[in-house]
Design brief:
Layout lengths: L20 H9 L4 H4 L3 E6 L9 E5 L2 E5 L1
Antiparallel strand pairs: 1-2, 2-3
Length: 68
Amino acid sequence: MEINRNAPATAEGELRIDADPSTVFSVIAAIDQWPSWNPDVKSVTVEGPVQPGMAFRWKAGPGRAPSL
């Protein structure tokens, strides 16, 4: 996947997970549940259903980040 290198902030990483892709996607797509499994994520506000182009805001560490 290509990321927008012109974005104000970027991050990337790689991790091998012993699960089928549909299971991994269902966990990642449940954005409002991120704080339950990622201790760095303090809060998430989802602005509508999860779909391409949807917006949400999340707080991790000292700052908040909009994801568009």
